[in-house]
Structure formats: C-alpha cells, structure tokens
Write a structure and sequence with these properties.
Blueprint (H helix, E strand, L loop, with lengths): L2 H10 L3 H14 L2 H13 L3 H14 L4 H13 L3 H9 L8 H14 L3 H14 L4 H13 L3 H13 L4 E2 L2 E2 H11 L3 H8 L9 H13 L3 H14 L6 H11 L3 H14 L4 H13 L3 H14 L4 H13 L3 H12 L6 H14 L2 H15 L3 H13 L3 H14 L4 H11 L2
C-alpha cells in the first residue's frame, strides 16, 4: 500500500497525527501521479493547506507545469491570499495550453474583489480564444446574471440550451433563463421557461419569480397560489407579502389583503415597505387610524423615505391635523428639498396656523409643478382671496377655471373680482 493511500485512510479515520506522518512519507516516496491524486482528495476533504503543500512539492519538480500554478492559485484564493494567487496566474504565459483556464480563475478572483470590468475582460478574452467552449459561455452567462446584465445573460443561456445543455455545475439553465426574462420585464417569455421547472426543483427565489411573473401578467389567482406556496415553504421570504396583498387588492379582496400584509409585518418588522403597504391597504379597508399607525411606524424605520413621508403627510392633511403635519414636515424641510406635493401640504398647514408668509412661499413653490392640478389651484386661489391678494388670486382662479369651467361658484367669484 502506498503512503498516499495510508494517509487518506488515516485522515478519514480521524487519525490526524498518523496522517501527518504518512503525508511526509508520501512526499518523500510516492509517485508524482499518486501525489497529484492525494492533493485532490485531501482538498475535497477540506485540507487545503496540505493540498497546497503537495502541489508546491510537485511545482518544484515541474516548474513548467502551468496546471499546478493554477491549482495553487485556486487554493490561494480559497485562503484569501489574492496577491499570491495573482502571482501564480501571472506566471502562465498566453501561449500556454492552460492560459484559458488561468483567465477563468482570474475572472473569478476579480469578481470576488468587485472589479467587475476586469473580470468581464478576462472572460471575454477566454471566449475569444475558445469560442465554442461551453464552460466559458456558462461562466460568462453567470457573470452577467450575477451583475444583473440580464439581456447579455439571456443570449448565452439560450445558446447553451439550443446546443442541448440544460444544466451546468448544478445550475438549471431553464431556471436562469426564466428569471432573466422576468427581471427585464418580458413576463410572457419568462413564464414559458419558469413553468417548465418542476416544483420540487424550485428554490425560494425561483418560486418568487414565478409568482411575480403571474402578478405582472395580471393572472392574480395564479399569483396568489404561487405566493402562498412560497409562503408555506419559506415564510421568512418577506418580499412576497406586499405582492400577495396587492394580488388580493386587484381581486377586490381587501380584507384578505390586509391579513396578508399583517402577516408580513409579523415576519419582518423592519421593512418599511411592508408598513407602507399595510397603511395603504388599511385605508382601502376604511381603517384610517390603523393606517396612521402603520405609516408612522414605516416613517420611524425609514425617515428618509419620501414616499412614506408623503403618505403620512397626506393622512394628516386629509384628517385636518395641520399641526401634526407641520411638526412632521418642519423637521425635514430644512434638510431636504421639499417636493411640490409636500410644499402644497405645508402651505395648507401654514394657512391653518395663520402664517401667511410661509403659506405664500409654499404655494408658490408648489405651483412650479402643480399648475395643472385643479385641487391645488382652487386652494391657492381661496388662500390668496382670504389674504386679500387680488392678483395671485385671479391668476390661480383663471388657471383653475381653464381646467374646471363648470364650477359655477368659482366662475362667479372670478366675475366678481373683475368688478373690483
């Protein structure tokens, strides 16, 4: 029996000290082929440092063997010794039979470092040298998929599938293609691929993409069933709950929508978008106070979220709680650019508080974007009429009547002003 075989038997039996001694003897006595096989075996068992020791021993004997350099580079990457890995890879010349493989390993390394442009360059160089190599096409497709460049990924996955390759490195290419189509909004094409995948082979992400695809195709019953299936298998997948709730809303099943989003809250209490959706659905269900609770919680979690801020502000305005709205918006208006809608809300709140100057400022600020909004124009006209400012009153009244000529009361007011 060779020392290499003895070393493996001892390693598998947990006899580490004996294994170390046999490894030393193997390096001194066994054939190079045996040592190469031993390196592969110990690496597969998680002893990467010992694998490196064996490869380094062989590399000293065969300095021209570029395959050993690449093996050492891969092990260095595993141990987070990136500079050492790059040193090994740089020793592989472009005319080497192993050069394409070295490019692939380098691409992986640069991708893990976040240097995506260099990683892509390495993969494209490898593809240029071996254009028909499926492994390279797959690596490039996976690179584009990972970096969300789905259109380029689609072309490569399609090429592989057309050649009869449906799976590589335990990756289902049909699945990848379906997800890629869904991510670029081509839901009909996505569905054709996603529905081919057997449920037993679907992970949570793919289940979500299938449900999301049904949702975007307005097949809400199927979307609900698919989201429920995902929820049953992975209830912690919090992204599903807003879409499940929206699917119920689209079928006018608001009570069930509210229950679904409340379930989402119980799963992920730190996702402001779940609180936002809960507030919106509570409003639909005429649960105004509950909606306020949800909007306030979402705003507390994400005070920078303008959409949540606006929903909360709108709630205060709709319920004529102008002082609460002032407290909310005055806390952010000095730090952030207030958009037209929030400026309009501020104007109404300052008007209620009797602060004519600030109300005027905010009506004028809002006017830049809301000059075609009848509600805003009417409020502004009435504000300036109350403030005794005829010129801006008439300006806003005229714009309002251009949009709503049938408002007899406001038309009469405009006519009265002409007589002044």
């Amino acid at each position: 029996m060779s020392y290499s075989k003895t070393a493996l038997d001892q390693l598998e039996a947990g006899q580490i000290d004996d294994y170390k001694e046999s490894l030393k003897k193997a390096l001194a006595n066994d054939s190079d082929d045996m040592l190469y096989s031993l390196a592969e075996e110990v690496y597969s068992l998680g002893f990467s440092k010992d694998a490196s020791t064996i490869y380094e021993h062989l590399a000293q004997k065969y300095p021209e063997d570029d395959g050993l350099k690449i093996n050492l580079a891969e092990l260095a990457i595993d141990d987070d010794h990136d500079d050492q890995a790059l040193n090994y890879l740089s020793q592989v010349a472009p005319d080497s039979d192993e050069y394409v493989r070295s490019l692939m390993v380098a691409a992986d390394l640069y991708q893990t470092q976040g240097m995506f442009e260099i990683s892509e360059q390495k993969l494209l160089a490898a593809q240029k040298l071996a254009p028909d190599e499926d492994v390279i096409k797959f690596a490039l497709a996976e690179f584009y998929f990972t970096t969300r460049n789905y259109r380029k990924a689609i072309n490569l996955y399609l090429d592989l599938i057309k050649s009869g390759t449906l799976e590589m490195s335990a990756v289902n290419l049909i699945e990848r293609l379906g997800v890629s189509y869904a991510e670029i909004g081509k839901f009909e094409q996505a569905l054709g691929y996603l529905e081919q995948i057997k449920p037993i082979h679907m992970n949570s992400d793919v289940k979500f993409e299938l449900a999301f695809t049904y949702f975007n195709l307005k097949e809400y019953q199927k979307a609900i069933k698919a989201f429920q299936d995902l929820r049953d298998s992975d209830p912690q997948y919090s992204s599903l709950y807003p879409y499940l709730a929206d699917a119920y809303v689209n079928l006018k099943r608001v009570d069930e929508a509210l229950k679904a989003i409340q379930e989402g809250i119980s799963i992920d209490q730190f996702n402001e978008k779940i609180w936002q959706k809960a507030g919106q659905i509570a409003l639909m269900d005429n649960e105004d106070e509950l909606a306020l609770t949800y909007f306030k919680k979402g705003h507390e979690i994400a005070p920078e979220d303008v959409e949540l801020l606006t929903l909360l502000s709108d709630w205060y305005i709709a319920h004529e709680r102008y002082s609460d709205n002032l407290a909310l918006l005055e806390a952010v208006s000095d730090e952030h650019v207030v958009d037209a809608h929030l400026a309009y809300n501020l104007a109404q709140s300052y008007q209620d508080a009797g602060n004519i100057k600030k109300a005027d400022q905010n009506y004028e600020l809002a006017a830049h974007e809301l000059s075609d909004n009848p509600d805003f124009l009417k409020h502004a006209a009435l504000f300036y009429r109350e403030a005794g400012q005829l010129e801006p009153e008439r300006k806003y009244l005229k714009k309002y009547l251009d949009l709503v000529p049938g408002d007899i009361e406001m038309a009469s007011m405009y006519e009265e002003d002409q007589d002044l």
